[in-house]
C-alpha cells in the first residue's frame, strides 16, 4: 500500500512539473521598451533599486518584473515569453558591458531570493 502511494505521489509530481513547464509568465508588460529604460540613467536606477529592494517599485511593470526576475535569472528564463527572454538578454548584455558590479550584485540578490523561496 505504501509503495502504491509513493508511486502515485511520484507520478503526480512528474505530471505537475510537465504542466508547469507549459505555463509562461504573464505577457501584460511585454511591450515596455527595455532600451529606453537602459538609456535613461534616472529610470534605469529606479528599476535597479526596485530589483535590489533598496527603493520602491514605482510602476506596475517594475513590480511585476521584480516578482519574476530572480526565478527568470536562475532558470535562464524557462517560463519567459519570447519578448521577456529578449528583454532579459538586453538587460544582461547592457549591465555586463556597462556596470558589471551592479550586474553581479543583481545576480547575487537573485540567488539570495531563490534560497529564501526554497526555504519557504
TrEMBL record:
The keyword Membrane does not apply. Residues 1-20 form the signal peptide. It comes from Camponotus floridanus. Keywords: Signal. PANTHER family: CHEMOSENSORY PROTEIN-RELATED, EJACULATORY BULB-SPECIFIC PROTEIN 3-RELATED. The keyword Plastid does not apply. Pfam families: OS-D. Coiled coil: none annotated. InterPro entries: A10/PebIII, OS_D_A10/PebIII_sf. This is Putative odorant-binding protein A10.
Amino acid at each position: 500500500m505504501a509503495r502504491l502511494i509513493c508511486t502515485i505521489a511520484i507520478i503526480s509530481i512528474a505530471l505537475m512539473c510537465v504542466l508547469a513547464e507549459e505555463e509562461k509568465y504573464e505577457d501584460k508588460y511585454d511591450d515596455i521598451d527595455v532600451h529606453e529604460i537602459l538609456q535613461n540613467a534616472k529610470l534605469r536606477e529606479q528599476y535597479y533599486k526596485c530589483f535590489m529592494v533598496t527603493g520602491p517599485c514605482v510602476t506596475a511593470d517594475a513590480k511585476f518584473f521584480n516578482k519574476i526576475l530572480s526565478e527568470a535569472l536562475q532558470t535562464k528564463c524557462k517560463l519567459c515569453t519570447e519578448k521577456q527572454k529578449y528583454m532579459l538578454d538586453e538587460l544582461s548584455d547592457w549591465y555586463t558591458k556597462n556596470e558589471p558590479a551592479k550586474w553581479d550584485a543583481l545576480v547575487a540578490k537573485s540567488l539570495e531570493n531563490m534560497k529564501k523561496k526554497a526555504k519557504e
